[in-house]
Amino acid sequence: MTNENQSKPFTAKRIASIDALRGFDMFWIAGGEEIIHAIYKVWPNTTTAALDAQFEHVPWIGFHFYDLIFALFVFMVGVVLPFSLTRRMEEGANRGQLYRHTVQRFILLFLFGLIYNGLLDFNIHTLRIPGVLQRIAICYLVAALVMMNASIRGQAIVAGSILVVYWLIMKLVPVPGVGAGVLTPENNLAGYLDRLIIPLRFCCYTFGDNEGLLSTLPAISTCLLGVLAGHWLRSAKYTPNRKVLGLAAAGLASLVVAWVWSFNFPIIKNIWSSTFVLWAGGWSMLLLALFYWIIDVRGYQRWSFYFKVIGMNSITIYLADRFFDFGNITKVFLHGLLPVFGHYRPIVWECSVIFTAWLFLYFLYRQKIFLRV
Asked: Residue 372's closest CA among 95, 104, 141, 14?
């Protein structure tokens, strides 16, 4: 890894807010959104309806809270990189060993993604090749390689250049029979290339894949934004309060640029538009600033333990939620009590299921078992 402009470690102590924010993010993926839907079901009114809508993906142009979840996780993958790669260097790893570790992690994440999509069903016709973990694997690989071969300024230039290049490609390269610059679900360039190149099936819109080929390019910038935030947190030059202000200022600036740019290139999660990167990145930086200030600067850590347990086994809960129904265990203990709660039964049920999943993660946490690929 290049030493040019690389910051020195701020502290050897683990930054607790990173695990907590990652756990907060995975909480919603692991079923937290179902609690919100249950609240709306129990108390249907304009306020709960608006809240419930935030936990559904926007069909195309626009942004809801639930559209942030995946982007925030990719961002957090980047945040960790300056800490994890530097730690390996301090432990004596050379460049070759870092490259091998990075490639191995990429392969494992990609393989887990294929398994998540049904690889072990051995039915090639139902297998989906792109996916969440596959995109994370690619973003991790490229971001790690960029970090190991470029200065911090160079990493920022790469992140920004990708966004500009993707914008130009999407606006200027014509789709056969349609033309250039069309950003509808049916006729955008990213979706056209997915239909042209990706075999088998798509998810989750008919005319392309949410984690398709071309749209993975700007997702790399999401990860690199996290890398830059990680460098900022590691820096020994600034006080913790200055770091909070820096993250918050960068987040707000990102939101402003995204909003202005969106008049030409709309915020669209399905094709991971450049404005989506900056909009989601802005909110990710603001959340990181908030969690870092509360947990690491102010020292209020107890409340975050619930999220920390999830965050330290984020890949585990993602895979477990796919292949294991925690509701079956919950039923064993709760089925006789549910009628007692009457009208509030949906909320009690959803809270109980996710608590069962948390107890599983807590057991792993107490046994110091963590799936870290």
From this structure: 104
Residue ranges in the chain whose pLDDT is less than 70? 1-13, 201, 204-205, 373
Instruction: Output the pTM of the full model.
Output: 0.92
Q: Tokens representing 101?
A: 């570790």
Question: How confident is the model over 235-247, as pLDDT tens digits?
Answer: 889 999 999 999 9
Q: 232 vs 111, 129, 316, 350, CA distance in Å? A: 32, 35, 28, 38
Separation of alpha carbons 160 and 173, rounded Å: 20
**43, two tokens:** 């108390």
372 class by beta-carbon count within 10 Å (0-12 exposed, 13-18 middle, 19+ buried): exposed
